[in-house]
TrEMBL record:
<comment type="similarity">
    <text>Belongs to the class-V pyridoxal-phosphate-dependent aminotransferase family. Csd subfamily.</text>
</comment>
<dbReference type="InterPro" id="IPR010970">
    <property type="entry name" value="Cys_dSase_SufS"/>
</dbReference>
<feature type="domain" description="Aminotransferase class V">
    <location>
        <begin position="27"/>
        <end position="406"/>
    </location>
</feature>
<dbReference type="GO" id="GO:0030170">
    <property type="term" value="F:pyridoxal phosphate binding"/>
</dbReference>
<comment type="function">
    <text>Catalyzes the removal of elemental sulfur and selenium atoms from L-cysteine, L-cystine, L-selenocysteine, and L-selenocystine to produce L-alanine.</text>
</comment>
<keyword id="KW-0808">Transferase</keyword>
<dbReference type="GO" id="GO:0006534">
    <property type="term" value="P:cysteine metabolic process"/>
</dbReference>
<dbReference type="InterPro" id="IPR020578">
    <property type="entry name" value="Aminotrans_V_PyrdxlP_BS"/>
</dbReference>
<dbReference type="InterPro" id="IPR000192">
    <property type="entry name" value="Aminotrans_V_dom"/>
</dbReference>
<keyword id="KW-0663">Pyridoxal phosphate</keyword>
<dbReference type="InterPro" id="IPR015422">
    <property type="entry name" value="PyrdxlP-dep_Trfase_small"/>
</dbReference>
<dbReference type="InterPro" id="IPR015421">
    <property type="entry name" value="PyrdxlP-dep_Trfase_major"/>
</dbReference>
<protein>
    <recommendedName>
        <fullName>Cysteine desulfurase</fullName>
        <ecNumber>2.8.1.7</ecNumber>
    </recommendedName>
</protein>
<dbReference type="GO" id="GO:0031071">
    <property type="term" value="F:cysteine desulfurase activity"/>
</dbReference>
<dbReference type="Pfam" id="PF00266">
    <property type="entry name" value="Aminotran_5"/>
</dbReference>
<dbReference type="InterPro" id="IPR015424">
    <property type="entry name" value="PyrdxlP-dep_Trfase"/>
</dbReference>
Amino acid sequence: MPDVTPAPVREDVRADFPGISGRPDRVYLDSAATSQRPEAVISAEADFARHDYAAVHRGSSLATGEATFAFETARERVAAFVGAGEREVVWTENATDALNMVALGIADASAGLGGERFALRAGDEILVTEAEHHADLIPWQRLARRTGATLRWVPVDDRGLWTIDDLRAQLTARTRVVAFAHVSNVTGMIAPAAEIASLARDVGALSVLDACQSAPHLPLDLGALGVDFAAFSGHKMLGPNGIGVLYGRAELLDELPPARTGGSTITTVTMEDAEFLPAPQRFEAGTQPVTQVVGLGAAVDYLAGIGMDAVHAHEAQLAGELVDAVASVPGVRLVGPEPGAERAALASFIVDGVHAHDVGQFLDDRGITVRTGHHCAQPLHRRLGVAATTRASAYLYTTSDEIAALRDALREVRGFFGADR
């Protein structure tokens, strides 16, 4: 058989990232919160703002046409990157906004504002997991209250994990929405998205995927996964802040009531009513974040140039090193999959006798940037019996030496705070 091993991430990739290449004293292990940006993305935004900036989809001038071309070309590239059609990619403020747009659209359908196929009624059920980020929990809580539907969840175990059998046990003939994270931002667990989408489809439910921690790190083909909707953010995948993506199957987007209304979304407006454009424009009300869209287009170009298979292979190695580093330190407990099990390149952990915020400050004093807190997942942390964890997360620019630096610093934490006595 031919060698299908992906080409490795090139060794000098860090030189592309001024935020870390210019800071040799900084170990950046917080990419799950927000990633660094390569010079190619920074330059793409700056060049567009300097030379080509204009309103998009407004007017007939040459400047508008050129800006609109850049705007829509970026949509095509982002769509291709995630296995979607260009009509299936909607620009949003971020992934949180995208998930809210789906929930609010279903709420409007339930109120009789179109999209009858999405309407929820009393007795219908919405299914999430106990491990969800608040952005993929609170919108469904509110949707349940607005419609009379029942919110159900898949429970997690003592490590913060759930299985496909756990989810299957919560599905019923009344389930209408199944919302879940592709990759947990706390445990690093990778969910079997295609299988879950199939189970949801079998009971007539919509599947909604939080792809924030998968789109930057895994080869992603949303069409092949079979999910109905998905959301991800630009700033976690080398792109700008203030830009996210809502993916939806085209026929669903064309029927879902738009949560945001106003200019650019309509075909006809009278004093009594309005008719809306097909997707994606029906969801993109108001002035668009054009420079951010251009930056996100440059980000997916950069990732495609590296190769997502190579990114995934690099991070799989780092994931093992992260787990080994954390597990090797006495008094430090790893959250999520056991060592040796598949996980994303992030590791949340608990240092016995030391609060997570103190752990983070100790590491920060040694030049190591991590995330501390509940990571917008309070129910999961409550189930684990802790208020907060410390999370280290890697990306394509992370090195083995940085993981080793984390390990060495962790070995000092409990002694520094007198917790090893």
